[in-house]
UniProtKB/TrEMBL annotation:
Keyword Kinase in annotation: no
Keywords: Membrane, Transmembrane, Transmembrane helix
Pfam families: DUF4220 (PF13968), DUF594 (PF04578)
Residue ranges of the TM segments: 17-34, 46-66, 113-132, 138-158, 300-318, 330-358, 370-389
Name of the protein described by the UniProt record: DUF4220 domain-containing protein
Taxonomic lineage from the root: Eukaryota, Viridiplantae, Streptophyta, Embryophyta, Tracheophyta
UniProt domain DUF4220: residue ranges: 51-401
Tagged with keyword Transmembrane: yes
């Protein structure tokens, strides 16, 4: 064992720099290929892998750079040539620290630490420069090539730091806050008013609202038709520029609300959610990539320059004297140069086929043919349309969890070491693709309510609604007791009731445990949509509590689960899903459970059973229309009461339906940020004849 340990130690001491440099390059390749997938997938394995690559990439590059500096300081004459060639690798490590254009931060918290990256920039650039000093001392092709790579690496590292700073919340807010506006001078106006009155002139104040600003001159986007969604991309970018202040809690004008409503009222559900999806994609790029700085015509030109500089450095190295260098070091140098060229080429391609480039080209009226060419290339690469979020929502079912969470020795051990919750997430949470019927239901409900609102108070009423309006419109005010409770309690009540009602008459083509059709039919009914929304809201309540209104949802959930498990065990062991649900519905619930149990336990199990029995008295079409509308209102209430910070945070994790609803509700006018009604008033003094 000791001999093996010593041999591994000798191997590491001899090859550590080579291993670290190649590992750094491999991590860059991993980031280049994985990071573009992040905003359109919610797969935990990919997210974990990308997180590991993101953290290791910086650590490995810094460690390799430190070892290079240490190796050079040792200055062993026997390895002089080897040290010179290894010094050539230092600027590549700086290039790696700059990272690919597709990822600057893993989460929005990283943007707030931009000053740490700035400090790291200063130290790592100094370390790389010290390593290069010996090469720069003698003017040679190798030294010139290293200098060129050093310059490109320095710029890319600075780009990353600048992108992090630009995406920090304070900087974003400062960039969008307009200059202080005191408005027209009230004191001067009143001074003139008093003078006129003292002069016995019959003057009165005549107010005229500020004229609305002229609409911006649009480019000829109409002429493109809808090749690769070009028109939608441009419209999404226009709305993105106007509604970006939402992210930092700044106010919007009523004119912006009117313009947005006019557009979205004319949309189909597909178009509306597609435009919102594109807007959030732009927002993701602002937070987590260099897009805002380089995904434009100027950025494309700069990437061409970088590609040319690295190519020139490659040619210099190809023609420099390599006698005396180790073959392995020469190969590694070629690999680093080839890897740098490849990553610059990939960066250039991603810029060209990005939504930002399409917008930049459309804004230049003389580049019509180029815009169409780029759109056709995009259509070829993404024939089914470019996905910009995962289009999946998570599902969590309370009764399925209670039936499957058996108390075994292994589970008790996992609970003791605090890993059971992770295991439960893996076992009991699954994802389903968002059906278009759900999109249509959400859009139609928001559109109807937005059109019905006339005043600010109407919009406030819509924001505060969590199911009451649906009950009133469907003539079910006798069920108001279920929505007049705390929000987390209402969610649990309706979740249990929806689950029990759904499984009362389970169809022959349905899986009774999940409720998903086996026949492949994509036309979801209100019944299926209700179950999907119910399971999604429970997932948000328990697994994403930061996105929900404050409450004691976790405590209610635990107490309800404890009562359900106790009930199932008391019935008999080995209950199937349908048998367990039937047993719950067989319990007499004429007396309010709180009258029997008191309020120490926060379980709502049999309150949910009471609600299910009352819902089962309704006709089936009426029942599921009501349940689906109640869930839509609850989802809207959760959207309004979620802080914008947590909406923004979800963009890097595949997106969330709740976030898409948040932006769509803002476009429909059901938001709290609208404050400026008519702009300045232009007041003048008028005189009676």
């Amino acid at each position: 064992m000791q001999i093996i340990k010593e041999s591994w130690k000798k191997l590491w001491n001899a090859e550590e720099i080579r291993i670290l440099v190649l590992a750094s390059l491999c991590l860059q390749f991993g980031l280049v290929f994985l990071s573009p997938m992040r905003k359109r997938t919610a797969k935990k394995l990919l997210i974990l892998l990308l997180w590991s690559f993101y953290l290791l990439a910086d650590y490995v590059a810094i460690l390799a750079l430190g070892n290079l500096l240490k190796k050079q300081n040792e200055g062993a004459s026997a390895h002089h040539n080897s040290i010179d060639l290894m010094a050539f690798w230092a600027p590549f490590l700086l290039l790696h620290l700059g990272g690919p254009d597709t990822i600057t931060s893993y989460s929005i918290e990283d943007n707030e630490l931009w000053w740490r990256h700035f400090l790291g920039l200063a130290f790592q650039v100094a370390a790389a420069f010290m390593v290069l000093l010996e090469l720069l001392a003698v003017i040679s092709r190798l030294g010139i090539a290293a200098s060129l790579i050093f310059i490109v690496g320095l710029v890319k590292y600075a780009e990353r730091t600048w992108a992090l700073r630009s995406a920090s919340m304070n900087q974003l807010r400062d960039s969008m806050v307009r200059d202080p506006d005191p408005g027209p001078s009230y004191a001067e106006f009143m001074q003139e008013y008093v003078w006129r009155r003292e002069a016995k002139e019959s003057a009165y104040v005549k107010r005229k609202d500020e004229p609305p600003p002229l609409p911006p001159k649009h480019s000829n986007v109409e002429s493109y038709g809808n090749i690769y969604d070009m028109r939608w991309i441009y419209e999404a970018y226009t709305f993105f520029k106007k509604f970006k202040p939402l992210v930092v809690d700044l106010m919007l004008t009523f004119k912006e609300r009117k313009d947005s409503q006019t557009y979205f009222w004319k949309c189909s559900a597909f178009q509306a959610f597609k435009v919102v999806e594109m807007e959030l994609s732009f927002l993701y790029d602002v937070f987590h990539t260099k897009a805002i700085h380089i995904r434009c015509l100027r950025g494309c030109l700069w990437r061409f320059v970088c590609l040319g500089v690295i190519s020139f450095a490659f040619m210099l190295f190809l023609n420099c004297e390599k006698q005396g260098y180790a073959s392995a070091d020469i190969i590694i140098s070629y690999v680093l140069l080839g890897g740098a060229l490849f990553m610059e080429l990939i960066s250039l391609v991603l810029i060209i086929i990005s939504d930002w480039m399409i917008v930049a080209i459309i804004q230049h009226n003389k580049l019509n043919k180029l815009a169409i060419a780029v759109a056709k290339v995009m259509s070829f690469i993404f024939p089914m349309g470019k996905p910009r979020w995962s289009n999946f929502i998570s599902q969590y079912n309370l009764l399925s969890f209670c039936l499957g969470d058996e108390s075994t020795k292994i589970r008790r051990i996992m609970g003791a070491v605090k890993v059971k919750e992770l295991w439960d997430k893996f076992i009991f949470i699954h994802s389903v693709c968002v059906p278009w019927k759900l999109y249509e239901l959400l859009f139609d409900e928001l559109k109807t309510k937005s059109k019905s609102a006339r005043h600010t108070a109407d919009f406030k009423e819509l924001r505060d609604c969590k199911g009451e309006k649906a009950l009133q419109q469907e003539g079910c005010n006798h069920l108001r007791w279920s929505t007049d409770k705390e929000f987390d309690e209402s969610i649990l009540l309706w979740h249990i009731a929806t689950d029990l009602c759904f499984h009362t008459h389970c169809g022959i083509n349905e899986n009774p445990e999940t409720g998903h059709c086996w026949n492949g039919d994509s036309d979801h009914s209100d019944r299926e949509i209700s179950l999907i929304l119910s399971n999604y809201m429970l997932y948000l309540l328990i697994m994403q509590p930061s996105m929900m209104p404050a409450g004691i949802g976790k405590i209610r959930f635990q107490d309800t689960c404890a009562e359900a498990k106790g009930f199932f065990q008391a019935e008999k062991k080995g209950l199937t899903g349908p048998e367990a649900r039937e047993a719950l519905l067989d319990v007499e619930t004429e007396v309010d459970p709180i009258e029997v149990k008191g309020d120490r336990s926060k379980s709502v199990l049999f309150d949910g059973c009471r609600l299910a029995k009352e819902l089962n008295l309704l006709a089936e079409d009426e029942r599921w229309r009501l349940v689906s509308r109640v869930w839509v209102e609850m989802l809207g209430y959760a959207v309004i009461n979620c802080k914008t910070y947590f909406h923004a945070k979800q963009l890097s994790q595949g997106g969330e339906l709740l976030t898409h609803m948040w932006l769509l509700m803002a476009h429909m006018g059901i938001g709290e940020q609208y404050r400026v009604e008519a702009g300045h008033a232009v007041a003048t003094l008028a005189f009676n004849n």
